[in-house]
Specification:
With 255 residues, the protein is of the alpha/beta class. 30% of the residues lie in helices and 19% in strands. The strands form 5 sheets. A 4-stranded mixed beta sheet has the order 2-1-3-6. The protein has a 3-stranded mixed beta sheet with strand order 4-12-8. Strand 1 (3-10), helix 1 (17-25) and strand 2 (32-38) form a beta-alpha-beta unit. Helix 2 (62-75) packs across helix 5.
C-alpha cells in the first residue's frame, strides 16, 4: 500500500496537540506514517521523533538539514510514497483518511506552490543572494512556499544529492534557504515536478506592527470557526497555518 508520510519540523510537537492526536487516532493506521524533527525533546508524540535531529535556527540552512533528516527517516519505510511537510502551527482541515485521499489524488507529481506574499518573496530573494556561494547560481531562483508535497523518487534524489548541493550555502546566517533549496535543486536536477496548489493556507495580508511598520509575516489566528474551515477547503487547502496555543478554535475539521 502506498502511504503518506507527514513530516513535522517543529519546536516540540504541535500548538494544538489534541486536534492532531484525534486526527491520527481516528484514521486508518495502514495509510500513513508520522515523523517529527524536534528542536526540543519531550512533550507529545515523542514516539515519532526522528533519531538524528540537528540543531536548528530560524531562517538558517539548518532547517534544510532538518528536513533532510525527516526525509531520511521516512524513506526507511518503503511504502511511504507521498511526503507532506507540516509545522507546529499547522491545523488539519479534513479527517486523516480524507487528507490521505486528497494528497494521492491532487499530487501526482512533486508539487511546489508560489509564495503567498510577493513582497516577502522579493525580500527573501535579496537575503538569499547574501548566502549563496559561487559558482552555483542559486540566487537566480525565486522563493516558494516551504510546505510542499514530494513523491518518493524525488525525495530519494534530494537525500542522495544533499552533500553535493549543501556546500553552496552559507550555514550560520539567516538566508531563508527552506523557501528556495528544494525547488531550486529539483529544477537543477530537471525533476518532473509541478508548481501548483498549495497544501497550506497562510494569511500574508499586509498590516502594521506595534512599531508602526509593515508586518510581512504570516498572521497568527485569533480564532478559527467552521465557516473559515469550509472556505479554506473550497480554496483547495489541506491545512491552515499559524494556529497558536491561544487560538480560539470553534470549528471542527472532522465534520
Amino acid at each position: 500500500m502506498e502511504k503518506v508520510a507527514f513530516l513535522n519540523l517543529t519546536y516540540n510537537s504541535f500548538n494544538d496537540n489534541s486536534t492532531w492526536k484525534k486526527f491520527f487516532d481516528q484514521g486508518n493506521k495502514d495509510t500513513f506514517n508520522f515523523y517529527i524533527h524536534p528542536k526540543k525533546q519531550g512533550g507529545f508524540f515523542t514516539e515519532y521523533h526522528v533519531p538524528n535531529p540537528v540543531p536548528t535556527a530560524w531562517g538558517h540552512f539548518s532547517l534544510v538539514e532538518a528536513t533532510i533528516e525527516l526525509m531520511k527517516a521516512a524513506l526507511e519505510d518503503e511504502e511511504n510514497e507521498y511526503f507532506t511537510l507540516i509545522s507546529d502551527s499547522h491545523f488539519p482541515l479534513y479527517k486523516l483518511d480524507e487528507t490521505v485521499e486528497l494528497i494521492k489524488n491532487k499530487y501526482k507529481k512533486t508539487t511546489f506552490a508560489k509564495h503567498f506574499s510577493f513582497h516577502t518573496k522579493v525580500k527573501s530573494q535579496k537575503i538569499l543572494r547574501e548566502g549563496v556561494i559561487a559558482p552555483h547560481p542559486f540566487d537566480e531562483y525565486n522563493a516558494v512556499c516551504q510546505f510542499f508535497v514530494c513523491r518518493r523518487k524525488d525525495v530519494m534524489k534530494f537525500v542522495a544529492t544533499f552533500q553535493e548541493y549543501a556546500k553552496f550555502f552559507v550555514k550560520n546566517k539567516v538566508i531563508f534557504a527552506d523557501e528556495f533549496y528544494f525547488w531550486a535543486v529539483a529544477k537543477d536536477l530537471k525533476l518532473d515536478f509541478d508548481i501548483g496548489q498549495a497544501t497550506t493556507y497562510s494569511d500574508w495580508s499586509m498590516r502594521l506592527n506595534s512599531e508602526g511598520g509593515q508586518d510581512r509575516n504570516p498572521r497568527a489566528f485569533d480564532k478559527l470557526d467552521q465557516q473559515m474551515i469550509q472556505d479554506y477547503r473550497n480554496k483547495g487547502f489541506l491545512y491552515a497555518r499559524k494556529i497558536m496555543s491561544h487560538t480560539f478554535v470553534l470549528g471542527d475539521p472532522f465534520k
